[in-house]
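Summary for the steering committee. The consortium agreed at its last meeting that each partner would contribute one worked example illustrating the joint modelling workflow. Our contribution is presented below. We chose a case with several input lines so that the handling of multiple components could be demonstrated. No manual editing was applied between input and output; the record is shown as generated.
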Amino acid sequence: MKCYVGIDLGSTTTKAVVLDEDGGILGRGITNSRSNYDVACEVARNEAFIDARFQLFERELSAVGLGQLAQGFLDDLRQAFRLEQHLAELGELHETCAINGRNFSKEKRLDAALAQIFGTLAEEARDLFGPGTERRSDFFRDIAGSRYMSLSEEIAGDYGFEFEELLGLYDKSIITVENHVSDIEFQDQLGRAVEHTVETAGLIDEEQKRIKDALHSVIPRRLLPVVSVGTGYGRARLPFPKEHIRSEILCHGLGAHATFPGTCTVLDIGGQDTKAIQVDPEGIVTSFQMNDRCAAGCGRYLGYIADEMNVGLHELGPMAMKATRSVRINSTCTVFAGAELRDRLALGQKREDILAGLHRAIMLRAMSLLARSGGVEEEFTFTGGVAKNEAAVAALRELIQENYGERTINISANSIYTGALGAAIFARRSGRGEVDHVGATALEGGLVG
Amino acid sequence: MSTKVVKEESMVKQKEMIADHFKKLARAKEEGKKVVYTFVPGNLTELLLAFDCLTVHPEINALQSGMRKKSGEYIAEAERAGHSEDVCTYVKCDIGMLMKGNIGPTGEQLPEPDLLLLSYTGCYTFMKWFELLRERYDCPTVMLQVPYQGDGEITPKMVEYVSRQLREVLVPKLEEITGKQLDEARLQELLASSARSEENLVHVLESAKNRPSPIDAYFGGVYYIGPLFTAFRGTPAAEEYYRMAAEEVDQRVALGLGPVTPEGQLENERFRLVTEGPPNWTHFREFWKMFYDAGAVVVASTYTKVGGTYDRGFRHDPSRPFETLAEYCLGCYTNLNLPDRVNMIADYVRDYHADGFLINSVKSCNSFSAGQLVILRHVEEKCGKPGAFIESDLVDPRYFSPSNIKNRLESYFQMLAQRKGQKVTA
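What follows is the complete predicted structure of the assembly.
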């Protein structure tokens, strides 16, 4: 089947969205942008095509009257597939660490150390991807990294290592693994996941058969990307013709409009820029403002704070929500943020309160861009990675109420994909009937059952 | 970027004029010529030429240093001497150049001033700048007071106030320094010559109302204003230059040609813009190329009015020499109040059929940037066209981030294309 792809190559994450011919969202994929944009683009696309395949499964199951069963089953299947994927990546990382560490002296028992670390990681993975568990991060690097660190710290001495040696090994190896587009067979992984999920789902034989049949009918369908449109900071790197590259302003405006058709004002906070966009009733951008000369108060600021506090990015929002009072922080300079934080901790202020202050500081900066772009009109849509952060959203709500009064504030659970969605809509609009020069990969070719 | 830069004949002529001027400056002391340092806004070139003085414009030197990639080291030199990061980068560039031997753009040393003449006080920084130069050169200094057009008009009292300063303070000082009496008839001849050049400059600038525009009125505009805003107003060389320039644009209009840019002639005019604020000089060509690549041409700019708002009708009038010079000082762009600036930009958008307008905001230049966000909103409201806002600097290369500016401009152009219903390309 024909499909349309939008890719948003951002400074922190790369997102892809696949649309079907009717403009329905088939799949979304995300990865960290890393130093290699080409790989990031490839990985995000592959992820989106995998997601699309699940969407097709869902549609097929509904079509054959298994819709009610489908939701729970597909969630489990997804988790099982993620587990397979994760285990494969762990295997690759293990192998790479072994290769990169081959020059360590014999007294250091590298093989045994790695076997213990990766053995534990693999065991724990089953819990991470068990049915119903919440995903802690979208990225292999984050999930594997934090546990690798703590395990290495525990066992380094037992095998004659300094902790830093094992840490260095990870840093070197993760880059190799990340920058390698995995050719581990999608089909095999999915096949195993299907078997596993069907067996453990507690279905009666007849249901099992119908589900398997439905899945296998989807598998041979080819997903053929007709046009791909790219946007985001790295868009110039994308191997698309010039007319298939769009600015992120247009894509965010259109994506927000498509998600919430009543949208007038859009705020997008990305890794290194903040955009305030006004759109007309057709989703056409009428004016926009972006931060200039300085990226203070952008998403990267939160990433830096998380690093400074040694917590995951996704933990910041919930922590800040526990604040009992908000500490006033004026500086939104990312580099100064660490000093602000330490200084205030030294003054005895609570971590949660400081974090609430930092979130408000970011939003204060966004408010000035919004004002510059023409204010906050009804309805208002907040997009970008930061829209996932509940403390940021709370601070924004408060400030909008204070400055503009009552406004409908739209936030989609998939807000991070807004730019990619806009790009995909452009792809669909501009290129129906044309075959995109970006060739289909094995993944798009479908699953051979 | 290709290395071959395309130039029109008038540009070649201008280059010769500038080279000749710097040669004269290099020989000034041995030839007994008096040298006056002064600024572009409100410059009194005709009066100075009537006394055979040669002029040096420190801000022109600074922008030339910027274009020749020398400003970075000059600014660093000034900062080492204690000038803060927030100070106008023209000032630091000039001070740094001075500390490094005051070598002008043609490689020759600039002569020391016999007089520092500040004839426009709308920029407070100018005053501080000349205080620094006075400390260094210990030379006579005249600082005129030029009232701000707070109420949006030049009143007879304001004209009288400035012209009296010219008659009662400046002329006696020039007579003292040069040992010459003012020859009023000569001054009138110079003013009459200025008016002829001004007529042609306006003709050139207004040619941008054509579609396609035969000129770029911002990047190209800075060349067109060059002679008239600096040492050449009132001279036969300037008159000839403007005759040539006017003929060139007439020819281009007749042939339906777009503007000449360093990358070549702009073949396909896609966007017409008005700009507010000075250009960035350190990445001048790179900045221009971002417009060229998008098929964008600037059809009118406020920067080309810093040395006179001629397109609004002002001409030097030889019949009232002092009053006309006073009106000139009072009328330069940055002396206008905000509502007047808003009107001017909105009028440009309408009269030049622009698709939108762009503000290049330079934080260290208060006389331009204070109020620009208000201007942005009001112009948008008035003309219904979208504005864009970018930030860069005059001559500090550290404050021009090409990838960010390019990203914003691309977004802006794509937005314009979308609004115009054009096919969007990057």
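Chain B has a mean pLDDT of 93. Residues 156-178 of chain B form the longest helix (23 residues).
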